[in-house]
Backbone:
C-alpha cells in the first residue's frame, strides 16, 4: 500500500527544521513553486496583479480570499493550464510555458468545478485518468483500488459517478488527483458545498497526506479550514496578496489575542471613544480586538453599562474581515 | 490570423483520448450497433423498393446500386460530423472532460487530435456495420468495396475537422443546428448522391466539386462499389487530403483559442 500511515506529526516538524537549517529555504530543490510579479489579465480585467510567493517542499500553503480574488486563476497558472500574462513562475524549477507536460506529470489537481467523467464508474474514472499519465494498466488497476479505499469509496467502485452524492464526488476527485502519486497537490476549494461530515472526512484525508510529507497548495474561503490545514497562507483580494504568514501569527499580528463583543448602544460607543479604545461596528455588535480582554471588559463593565458582552479568542476570520472589508463580493 | 494556420504540436498521447472514447463506445455498443443497420435497411427499402420501382437505371446502373455508395458516403459524413459537433461539445462544455484531461500531461492539441481521430473512427465503424447489409442485398461489389473502410477514415477525418471548427466557434449547443441545416442537409442532396451531378446546371456542378466535400467522397465511393475505377480518383483524393489537413490544423488552433485562456 502506497500510504504508510505513520505517526509522523512530530517527525515531520523535526525533518523540516533540519532541512531548513541545511538549505535555508533558497535551494531550488526545496522550493516547489516560485512566483514573482505574477500577473494575469483577461482583456482589460486584471485577475492577478503581480503577486509573489514561494511554496516549499512538504508545506501546506493556502490561498484565502473573497470570490473573484484571483485564487482559481493562480491555481490554473500553477497547474500549467492557463498561461500567465507576465512575471516569473517556476514549478519544480520548470517554466509552465516551456515544459507543461513534464510539470503536469507530477501534479495532482482538484479543480473547483467537479469534472469527473460521467461515462465511467468510480473505478473507471481513476483507471482512465491513470492512462493519461501513461501509468501501465496493471499498476493503474491496483492503485485505483487502493485509492478508492483511501477515500472510502470501495463500496461504490462499480457505481456510475452520476449516482454519487456531492461529498462522494469530491472524494473521488481527490482520489483521482492522487493516481500519479503527485509531488504537488493543487486543491481549488476542495470542500466547496459539502456538509460538515463530508468536510471533516476530506480534512482527515488531507491531514494524512500532509503527514506523509506531501506538498499541498489549496484555496478556500472557509477560514476554519485554512486555519486547520495550512502551515502558511496568503490572503488575496482583487488580484493582490494582502498578507502572508502562519495562521496563528497572522491572527496575533493583525487582530490580537481576543475579541470582546458588546451589544451596540449610544452609551457604549461614546464610552469607548472616551477611553480611546479602537472598535469596529458590525450590525448590532461592537467588536474590540485586544490582547487583554480582562482590561477591556473591566472598563466596559465599570463605565459603559454594556447590555450583553462576550469574550472570545480572535480567529482568522477576524483577520480576513479586517483586511478585505465586510462588503459582499460576488 | 497567422496562428490559425500554425502547425500544432501533437504527441502520441492523443491516442489516449481516442482510446477513452473507444472504451465508452464499446461499453454502450448496443446503442451504437443498431443505428447503422437500421439506417442501411431504411434507405434500401424506401429508396430502392419505393423510388427504385419508378427509376430503373441511372447511367446504365440499377438505381439501387447507384445510391448504395451514396448511403455509405452520407454515413461517413453524418457519423463524424455528429460526433465532433454534438459529441465533442457535450464532452467539452457539459462534461468538462477536456478540462480534466489537460490537467494531466495531455495538451489541448493532443485532446482535440484524439477527438478528431475518434470522429474518423466512428465513420469507419458505421460503414463497417453497413457494408455486410449492402453486400447481402448484393448492391455493392466485392472485394473493391472493402476500400470503403480506409476511405471512411479519410473522409471521416475531414468531416470531423470541419465539425470541430463549428464546435470551436459555436456560442451554445443550439447553434450547432445551423451547420446541420445549412451545410449537411444541402450537401446530402446535391453531391451526386441520389441523382447524378450532371443533372445540375453546369455552374452548380463546379460549385459542388469545388466546395462540397461530400461530392468527392461519393465519387470515390461509387468507383469502389460499382466498381468503376478511373484516374480521376487521384484528383478527388488530393482535394480531400488538402481540405483535411487544412481543417485539422485550423480546428485544433481554434479550439486552443477557445479553451486556453
Ligand atoms: N476565463 C475568464 N475570462 C474572463 N475573466 C475571468 C476568467 N476567469 C476568471 N475571470 C475573472 O478573474 C477574476 C478572478 O477570478 P478567480 O480567479 O476565479 O477568483 P477566485 O477563484 O478567487 O474566486 C474575477 O474577476 C473573474 O471574473
Ligand atoms: Mg475560485
Residues:
Amino acid at each position: 500500500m502506497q500510504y504508510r500511515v505513520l505517526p509522523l506529526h512530530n517527525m515531520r516538524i523535526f525533518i523540516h527544521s533540519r532541512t531548513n537549517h541545511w538549505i535555508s529555504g533558497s535551494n531550488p530543490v526545496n522550493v516547489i513553486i516560485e512566483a514573482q510579479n505574477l500577473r494575469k489579465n483577461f482583456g482589460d480585467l486584471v485577475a492577478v496583479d503581480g503577486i509573489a510567493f514561494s511554496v516549499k517542499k512538504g508545506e501546506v500553503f493556502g490561498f484565502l480570499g473573497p470570490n473573484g480574488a484571483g485564487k482559481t486563476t493562480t491555481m490554473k497558472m500553477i497547474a500549467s493550464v492557463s498561461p500567465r500574462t507576465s512575471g516569473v513562475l517556476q514549478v519544480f524549477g520548470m517554466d509552465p510555458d516551456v515544459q507543461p507536460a513534464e510539470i503536469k506529470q507530477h501534479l495532482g489537481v482538484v479543480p473547483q468545478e467537479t469534472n469527473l467523467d460521467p461515462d465511467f464508474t468510480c473505478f473507471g474514472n481513476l483507471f482512465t485518468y491513470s492512462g493519461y499519465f501513461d501509468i501501465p494498466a496493471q499498476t493503474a488497476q491496483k492503485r485505483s483500488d487502493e485509492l478508492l479505499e483511501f477515500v472510502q469509496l470501495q463500496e461504490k467502485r462499480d457505481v456510475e459517478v452520476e449516482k454519487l452524492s456531492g461529498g462522494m464526488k469530491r472524494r473521488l476527485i481527490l482520489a483521482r488527483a492522487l493516481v500519479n502519486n503527485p509531488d504537488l497537490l493543487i486543491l481549488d476549494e476542495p470542500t466547496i458545498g459539502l456538509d460538515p461530515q463530508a468536510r471533516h472526512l476530506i480534512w482527515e484525508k488531507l491531514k494524512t497526506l500532509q503527514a506523509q510529507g506531501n506538498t499541498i497548495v489549496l484555496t478556500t474561503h472557509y477560514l476554519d479550514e485554512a486555519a486547520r490545514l495550512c502551515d502558511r497562507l496568503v490572503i488575496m483580494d482583487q488580484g493582490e496578496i494582502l498578507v502572508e504568514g502562519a495562521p496563528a501569527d497572522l491572527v496575533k499580528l493583525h487582530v490580537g489575542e481576543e475579541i470582546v463583543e458588546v451589544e451596540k448602544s449610544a452609551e457604549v460607543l461614546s464610552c469607548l471613544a472616551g477611553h480611546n479604545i479602537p472598535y469596529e461596528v458590525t450590525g448590532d455588535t461592537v467588536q474590540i480586538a485586544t490582547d487583554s480582554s480582562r482590561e477591556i471588559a473591566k472598563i466596559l463593565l465599570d463605565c459603559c453599562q454594556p447590555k450583553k458582552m462576550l469574550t472570545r479568542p480572535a480567529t482568522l476570520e477576524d483577520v480576513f474581515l479586517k483586511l478585505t472589508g465586510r462588503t459582499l463580493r460576488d | 490570423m497567422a496562428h490559425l494556420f500554425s502547425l500544432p504540436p501533437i504527441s502520441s498521447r492523443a491516442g489516449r483520448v481516442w482510446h477513452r472514447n473507444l472504451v465508452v463506445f464499446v461499453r454502450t455498443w448496443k446503442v451504437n450497433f443498431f443505428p447503422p443497420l437500421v439506417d442501411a435497411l431504411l434507405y434500401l427499402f424506401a429508396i430502392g423498393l419505393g423510388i427504385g420501382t419508378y427509376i430503373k437505371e441511372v447511367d446504365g446502373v440499377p438505381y439501387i446500386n447507384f445510391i448504395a455508395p451514396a448511403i455509405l458516403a452520407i454515413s461517413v459524413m453524418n457519423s463524424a460530423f455528429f460526433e465532433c459537433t454534438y459529441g465533442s461539445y457535450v464532452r467539452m462544455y457539459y462534461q468538462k472532460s477536456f478540462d480534466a484531461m489537460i490537467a494531466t500531461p495531455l495538451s489541448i492539441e493532443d485532446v482535440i487530435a484524439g477527438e478528431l481521430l475518434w470522429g474518423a473512427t466512428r465513420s469507419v465503424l458505421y460503414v463497417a456495420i453497413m457494408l455486410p447489409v449492402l453486400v447481402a442485398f448484393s448492391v455493392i461489389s466485392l472485394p473493391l468495396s472493402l476500400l470503403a473502410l480506409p476511405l471512411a477514415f479519410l473522409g471521416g477525418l475531414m468531416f470531423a475537422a470541419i465539425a470541430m471548427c463549428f464546435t470551436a466557434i459555436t456560442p451554445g449547443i443550439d447553434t450547432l443546428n445551423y451547420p446541420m441545416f445549412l451545410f449537411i442537409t444541402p450537401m446530402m442532396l446535391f453531391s451526386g448522391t441520389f441523382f447524378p451531378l450532371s443533372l445540375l446546371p453546369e455552374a452548380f456542378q463546379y460549385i459542388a466539386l469545388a466546395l462540397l466535400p461530400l461530392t468527392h467522397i461519393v465519387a470515390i465511393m461509387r468507383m469502389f462499389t460499382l466498381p468503376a475505377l478511373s484516374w480521376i480518383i487521384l484528383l478527388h483524393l488530393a482535394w480531400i487530403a488538402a481540405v483535411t489537413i487544412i481543417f485539422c490544423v485550423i480546428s485544433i488552433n481554434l479550439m486552443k483559442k477557445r479553451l486556453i485562456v
Residues 1-26 of chain A have pLDDT under 50 and may be disordered.
